[in-house]
Amino acid sequence: MSAPLVLLPSDEVPQDHLPTNNSNPLRLGPGLRILSQPSSKGSNHVLTATQAGLLTTDAKRNTVSLLSFPNRRYIPTVNDFVIAQIHHSSVDFFHCMVTPHTAHALLGQLSFEGASKKTRPMLKQGELVYARVQSVGVGAGAEVELTCVNPATGKADGGLGPLTGGMVFDVSTGLVVLSELGKKLESLGGFEIAVGRNGKVWVDCSNAAESAVKVTIAIGRCLQETDQQNLHTHDQKKLVMKILRDMKLVS
Amino acid sequence: MVGPIASLSQLNRADGSASYKCPATGYSILGAVNAPIELPARRDALKPEEATVEVFVKPGTTTAGVGERYVEGILRSVLGKIVLGREKGFPRRGVVLTLAIVGGENVQRGDSYLTILPALLHAALLAMISASVPLSMTFSATLLGVTKSGDIVRDPSPTAAKAAVSLHVFAISSKNHLLLNESEGRFEFDTWELVRERAVSICQGVTPASTDGDVTMGEGTASASLNGFIRETVEDQVYSDYAYKLDDI
Fold first, then answer.
1. pTM
2. Any A CB within 8 A of B241 CB
3. Residue B64: is it exposed, middle or buried by C-beta count within 10 angstroms (0-12/13-18/19+)?
4. Rounded distance, CA B199 to CA B213, Å?
5. What would the DSSP string read from start to end of B27-57?
6. Which residues of B touch A50 (CB under 8 A)?
7. What is the CA radius of gyration of chain A?
8. Do A71 and B16 count as a contact with CB atoms less than 8 A apart?
């Protein structure tokens, strides 16, 4: 593995950092673009960065992409899982908010598992759904469409659908470690969690009976502090213990 | 000479933010970028295929006035050219940049606003990078003053700038293009050419070879250049954000 390489906008990706697997075409991830320079002998291609970030390559899938800053705004991409909030509903669609201050994403009234004209979820303003980005449209000002079923099977894979109860926490678009909390809270009934690519985490601990609220808040605090302080693995374990003690969840 | 101080992603709720302090002029700027977001009203009608860049400059102690409007216009035209407004998710959306002047002397009415322009440009660029707005290139900017005796002074303080015969702000891109030139006062073409060469050497860290083929010694190592400074600041932030990932490698 070569040394980590940080690129800035307009930097070229050096040839020796590209995966050498030639069986399938090279795929570009976000933050990179291809520029062609027509010359006498065909054209000359260079890959340049458009954002600042860490260059990562995957030799197996033959991809090259740029990991940008985790605090950025989420831009909908097909097949991403997101947590969306219903803003209002119209005849055919629920209008959902994926990120603040952007146009609403559309979620079909019938794109739920087993939904038909007669039986479909009646979601009210403010309710949450765990959905998948179905299409982002073409061209300027296109609408983002969400779905809560896998269109091929008609099943809600991976827990898609309305999220009832629980609480949502905002984290940065990068992700954090959770397994430590899971171990510590098993005795209290465990918790359910859904993570959206748009920087939202939904937590539900209705199994924990009387301490449900406490557990939810403890998890939220752990997530947000880990995120804000950029903690390492051993610091994260310390933080989990500290917060659980503070909230008198473990002795 | 003390170099500038900058850090990225300081604000939690903004999509991208940066703070920049220039010790020579004393200005301290906090910039925040939100992008891509939906703009109120139809401000995108002129160029529906591209993102609209909006810039707001807020002075620390007073309301924004004519001077702020003037630099907002300069910033908007520079940034509008380097932002790739046709990338996915950006057409018909807005890139909103807010720059707050949080430290340094107030620019009095009637004073030159050029003194603060390089600091604003740097804060704007770093905030854009922090918000992952697609850019075609990076740049760095510098302020140069020409005194009565014809000396070229780098980053003059507001009082020194008042005494200067002419003031020049240059922004040089990472590919060595001249992106912006704002000049004020009385000067001749020869002076301007000298100032430009000096600006390129400050931004790029490349000392231009003089006519007899000798390379003049002095300031101009790669790390001392302003473009190098921008790169180091961004690299530091990436390394700290992805520390968990780099440990694995």
1. 0.87
2. yes
3. middle
4. 20
5. -EEEEEEEEEEPPSSSTTSS-TTSPEEEEEE
6. 84, 87, 134-136
7. 22
8. yes
